[in-house]
From TrEMBL:
Pfam families: Lipoprotein_15 (PF03640). This is Lipoprotein. Keywords: Signal. Residues 28-60, 306-325 have a biased composition (Low complexity). It comes from the Bacteria. Residues 28-62, 296-325 are annotated as: Disordered. NCBIfam families: SCO0930_lipo. Residues 1-19 form the signal peptide.
Amino acid sequence: MTKRIRTVLLFGAAATALATVSACGAGSGDAKPSAPASPAASATAGSASAEPAPSATAGTLALHDDPKLKSVVTDARGMSLYVFDKDTPNTSNCAGDCAALWPPVPAAGTSAGQGLNPDLLGSLTRADGSKQLTLAGKPLYYYAKDTRPGDVRGQGVGGVWYASAPDGWKAGVTRPALGVLDDPKLGKVLQDKDGRTLYLFTKDQPWPMKTACGSDCLATWTPTGVVTNAEAKAAGLPEKALFTFTTPGGTRQESFNCWPGYTFKGDTAPGQTNGQNVKGVWFAIKQHITAIDRGRTVPAAKGPKTPAAQGSTAASAPAGSGYGY
């Protein structure tokens, strides 16, 4: 009787063990996952060399209005994208363990949504041959610890990681008084303290500076404020390129090689250049000003852009007289 009881107990224990192993996934290697994991999720569980699959896509990029950081670039799912201070233009310095925590954003199948300048999107080739998305030459990344759309847990990590602004600048970080936008089509052009592109008006008169932008024009184009020599130098501009003058309205306006500067109200987010080539008389101002000849050399970035080519973004600007005067 004792022997029979022992046999029954052993059989029951074996059956229990078999059920436990099955429940823990024995033989599950043949099972197919219900859905592919997101790049961020894959990086959390992956090894040091884990990176997003080449077939993954960020989709149509969008802008998220963060209460503290303002406009932050996200992928189509609303996941925040980041820039790395240790990167150099079109070169990523994040690999291995870094890329596991900060998965590179795949370039394939990505497009610019409302508020983003599509010309700023590009790609670089990583060491493994995959293509990583860039914005104005800045490589873009996810943060593995962001789990929900709108998360910005990577902001300020290590003092080198920041959510991306619409022009690749560091969201939530004060901009210089005079900035530079690296536009693939226009080259390096000047920006104001809010990231708005600076333009010149070829109907203005250089030296002595005289503006042809009257009241109707000023409803669409805003005169540039005064720039200091130190601010010009920080932006890579010769101090002698600055010529400040007084407008007919009594305000002080900055000019660059004697060409008065303006911002365009049709630019609604940093990095936009909707004012470029408007009516063939408005052009972004180049950063590279070497000839200081009181306006004889026009520091205009020549390119094919017009408001019509920029879609609904430019259409939101004041009607005026076609933005040109």
